Structure formats: structure tokens, C-alpha cells
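Hi, here's the filled form for the chain we discussed.

Project: internal
Contact: R.S.
Residues: 806
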Amino acid sequence: MSRRELQNILIPPGLEARAEDGHDSPSSSRSSSPSYYSPHVWPTDTRYEPAQIPVIPLSTQFTNSSSHDENRSPDDFDPYLLVASRRPSPHVEDVLPSRSPDPVANETFVIDFDAREGQGRQHTRDLSNTSTQPDTPFGTSRPYRDRFPSDWETRPIKLPRSRSPSLSSSSSTPSRKGVRKFLLRPSLASLSSRDGPRHFERPQYKRFIIHLALCGAIYPALLVATILAHGKTIFWARFITAAFTLAAGLALASSLVEMAKRIAEAAVWATIIHQTKFEGSPGIRMKDLVGYARSMGSAWSGLCLLWDRHAYPGADRDTRKRYDSRHWPLYIWFYVLVTTFSLILPFLLGRAVDIDVEAVEALKPFNVAVSNGDLSDLDVERLRSQGAMLSVDSALRWTLFTPQGDPLPVALQSANHTVYFSPPDTLEIDGLVPKPIESGLLRVPRWGIRINCVPLSNGKVNVVPRAESGAAYVFTTREDLQAMFPELSIPVPEHRSRPLIYSSVMAPNDSLPAGMDLESIVLGARFNDTGESLSVAQMFPYHASERFLAFSTTLIRLNTAFAPNGDFSHSISISSGEVGYDAVNCLQVYEPWLVEIHYANNLPPKMTRILEKKPLGDAKGDIPDGVARSLDSRRMSNVFDILQQNGINGMLKDYNVAGSSRYAPSPSIISLTDGELQPLGYTQLDATRYAHQKAQSDAKYVLSHLSGAEPLAAQWYPYENLATASINAIWFSVTLGISIALGTVAAFCTPTLPLSHPRRGLDLYSVFSALYTRELLSTRTGRLRRQMELEEIEEILRDSRVRFVN
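And the returned structure, exactly as it came back:
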């Protein structure tokens, strides 16, 4: 029904001429005696701006003097609106309760009766008596309502009263502001065709609150997963964390997609409206619409929609700019982003949980293993045969061949001591019987070194820089020697407290300096004039029970021209210049220790810790005959002096510069001080630095030869690889922040349909309503009949066109 047709219904018979006259000549209407009434017709398919409502011109003027009531004052009447809609109408149901079920109507109008001051009484609707039908300009509402067709329904709406300054104090007019409020109020948006510059639907508060609750529950869920996965095997740890992160990710992803689906559905309906509004277009294809509905919730539907909008000319922004200038592809791309993020959300949450492997040894040993660890008789014979070439006076400084090549010593901490070991040999582990087939810990006895070095006291007296034979002497007092043993927690040997027999140390014709206390000297060392900067003298090897003691004196002789910052305990002048002297005494203890060696396939063995000097302990299974449980110190005593000399030769070879000037420093010697590592950086010999480097040198040249082919019992502890799980704060924070941000935009930024049409979706409610009210019309529907197969229906309708009918 057009607006003109509705105006014709509102004008009573016989009043057409007066209405036209009144419209053409308002002055004449004001001069007549009857009152004039101005119905304003407001189609609800038009968007009204607030500024437009007060200036809409009068459409019709008519009077009904027969219904004039002299006994009623203007203040007894209320202005009203009349809502007229094609029955049945849910729009009217939104305003006033209906007396019958109301499906959707296609046409709805709002009629505003604007009462004006005239020469007679005004007649408007009186709502003071609710028991009667409301009055109209024709008396009662029945004659007025009868003018509409039978399939139309009318409802009166009361408006607030207002005083007009142009009228007398006793008169009142309908409030035009009330009309505007009625047409623009959000709760009556269905009557006002979605008022104002509103671009977004009502936010999805309920879904957004649920989404925030799910985001808040993610961290406790992952925390529970890490607690349950801790201490489990790798398989079960990964299974537990995967189950929790998958469940949490799917819940959060489902929430995101459900909120974002409204954006995609709005974009689909906008595409239908855009293509329908395009001149000459039959609409969009049915198979495209079916494809959107089937894949809704996935990124594929959004990509297909983007492609189809590119293909439909009506969706082009330049084409639709006059009625809808929004950038719909941006909304669709946001939907694609949300669905893609939701797809990978479980994986991102899985990455937010870090799983590490912790190797834990079994509580009991797996079995007794037999290792090649002790010296055999053949090893002792081989070492003794090679000892002849290890002379102190030999200029070659030969050392024994080390099977490990150039091993790096291992320093482990035991209580207050540092113990130095030769690294475990791969051949030693490979010789285990039975050979381990998995990673684990091997407990086996090993020889280790503890060392204590102290500077020589009173070097001015106890150092003889140059005797008659050209040799230098360093003497150790009883106090210096006895002070070294308590540090290593071992007793002082009684026979080493006796005074030194000087003839056993000094060369013939060499004399001692005056003032030396001969009774306090217990040890002495002679150093020939070889021109070497570092010299080491072995005083005595001593075998005490299960340990070996070795005492040595080291003398540093440097030309002071190479040490301008040197602080020496003694110095003399010779033909080649001035020479400074520094001396240090060292006490070494060789002991068997029970150590743990980590073994893993395809990796070199690694010594991990010391188990003090504990015995091997009980093992699962009997130790085979001929296999020792501990190291045999008796075999070591036969070769200990040879190995000590090998250690001295190795240190002399490493710390002296061959072919250099007499008493020139090497980088290794300068590293024994706290000076800078440069040619002139020597300052003063540091006993602590020297002790560390000497122990490492002896671990390389002495301890590496104490592991032989003699079978030795060992304990094998297989590893149990257990998992530890923790939450990665960075991954978790970024993932959760993106989820909250996307959810906020999806919940609050669902676009409205073009031309302020009410929201529609692709669910059954929206589709059924659109088909029933004929909002959607399709071609080829005439070919459909009952009892058709679904495949036949799809074949008929797939290429049909769908249009949106307002």
C-alpha cells in the first residue's frame, strides 16, 4: 500500500474537496469554524533523522464537526499515534500486546494526528476511560478502523502532552518531540527502520562474558595439566598436556567463531541486498548462498564470500555508495582472521606448555657391569719398560703416549676439596659387560688428585740462587711442610720431620749460606742451570694405606728484563742480566673415589659427580670371579714414581719455551700470576693458580695411565626419563591477549544490514521467517513439487537466483 493510498483511506467521503482546498489554501482552513486535523503518515521503511521529523509537511486536513463535544475541555484529550500494519504484524506486537499470534508483516505505517487550534473544540483520543474504544477525529475508532482493509490492524499509541507557546494557556497540542522519541527509540527500532547513524548491532554481552570466563579458565586448566604431567613419562606427559590444551583451545575457539559468525552472516545478507539493489540484477545464485550456510564457521566461507563479492557488481562500493558506503570486505577479512586463529588456537596453547626431560636414575642398579678400569700386570710391565726414557736430565723431555690423545681433566667438588680426574675413556665404557643398551649412570672407582700449594717462606734465606756448581737450591722448613697436611685432612708422616741429609741433595763443593737454620730444614731440591724458566723437583713419593702422597717444589727463574713488574722473593745478577726467583711447594694426594659417569648412546661418557670414598655397595647379581670391587694400590706403587716423572716432563714441556732466551717467560708461566697475559705481564707467582694448573697437568699425564685393562666391578643404573612441565609465560600471554582482543571486536562490532534492515542470520529461524514473509524470493520455485528427492531439489535450485524484497 502506498502512502497516497493510505491518505485516501484516512480522508472521509465528502471531505476530499475540503482537504484539497485546505491543502492548497491553509488560510481558508484557518478561517473556517470547524477544527482542522492533520494526519501525518510515517512509512517505517524510511530512515528518519531527528531533524527531519518536525518539518514534514501536512499531508491532509479534514474536520468532523459532528463529533464535537462542547462539554469537554482540550486538556481532557491526549494526543496519540496510530500504528497501522498488514495483519498479522509482529511490529505492532512490539508496541502493544496483540490479541492474536502475529507473524511478520510486510507493511507498517505510523499515523500522527497533529491537533491544531481552530475556532471550535478539538477532537482527539481520550484514554482516560480505558473501558471504551479510543476516540478518533471521526468520533470513535470503529468508523476510522473500518476504513482499512480487513487484513490490516490498527493500534493506538499514547504520546506525552506538551504546551505550545502559540496557544492559549488552556490549550494543549501533541508533542512533536514525543513523535520523534517514538520513531527513534531503540526498543521500537522495528517501527522506525533502525534509526540514526547506527552501524553496529547490539553487542553480544552474554557471549562476550562467556568468552571472558573461558579466557580466565585457561590458565588454571594449563596449570592442572602441568601438575598432572610432572613426573610422568614423555608419552603420558604429552598426552595429558595435549588433552588439556586441545579441550581449552576448542572451547575458546568455539566461543570466538560463534561471535564472529554474526559478522559473516551480516556480510552474506548485505551481499544479497547489494546485488538486489543493483539495477537489472536477478540476485545472487542459490548455490552460493547454500555454500555460505554449509561452511559457515570456517575461513573458507569468508574467502568464498570475498571472491563472490568481487564477482557481483552490486557489491562494489562505488555502486552502493549512495545508500551503504561501509567497507564490508574489512569485516569479512576480520572473520577470516578469527576463524584462522581459532583453527590454530589449540596448537598455540600447546606451545604455551614447555615439557622438559629429566633423567632420573633407578632406585636399584640394573645389574653388575664389568669395566676395564684397574692396572693389570701387563700394564705395569709396559709402564716400567718405558720409564727409562723419562730421565730428569734428558733434554728431550719425553712423555708417555696417552691413548686418549689430549684429554681434558675433570674437576669435581667434594665437601671442601676439589678433586681432579682424568676423563672417562670411551673404550673403557665400551668394554662394559654386559654392554648397556640404554642411557644411564655408571658407578665405578677412579683415581683422583687433591692438591695444596703454598709459597716458600723466607725466600731470602731458603733459596740459594746460585751455588759454586751453578745450581740453585730450594730448602723447605719443618714448619712449611707440616702446615700443608691439615688442609688436606691427612696426618704428617713421622719420618718426614727429621732434619735433611744435605749430602743427598747438594753437589760436591757446593756450600750453604751463612745464617741458615740447618736443624729446621727437612726437604731440599736442586735445580741445574738449564736456562728454563720453570723447574720442578720431586721430593718423595709416599704410599700410605689406600693413598699416595707426592711432594714437589717448583722454582720460577725469570730475567727481570722480561718482568718489569715482577715481585720476586730473591734475585741475583749474572752475566746476562738480573734473574728473579719465586718458589712454591705442593703436596698432592692420590686416592680412589667412587664416581658417577653418565653414559648415553652416541655420546661421549661424562663424569657427573663424586660419591665420596664410598665402597661399591651391593649390586643386583653376583660379582664374577676375578673381578675386583675396588682399585688395587699395590700395582700402582710399582709405577707411581715413573708416572710422577712423566707428569714433571709434561709440565716442563708445556710451560717452557724451547729455543728462547735464557729465563724468558712463556704464556703459561704468565698465566700463573694475576698480571695481564702479555710478554711483560709477569708479577708474582700465585700458589692457588699454580695448584689448579699442576693438578690438571698431572690428571692428564699421570691419572690417564692409571686406567688399565684389569676387570673392575661397576654398578649400572639405567635412566628413567621423566617429564617436567611448565607454562611458558610469553606464549601464554600473547595467545590469551589475542583471544581477548579478537573476542572484543567480534562481540561489539557486528555490522548492521544496509538500509537499516533488522539483523538476519543463516539459521533456520531467519531463513524460515524470510521465506514465510517473502523477504527472500527465488526463481525456479514453480518447478518444485511435493515428495521430490533432495538431489532433484538441489538440481533445480542450484542455479536459481535469490533476491531480497523489502
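Let me know if anything looks off before we file it.
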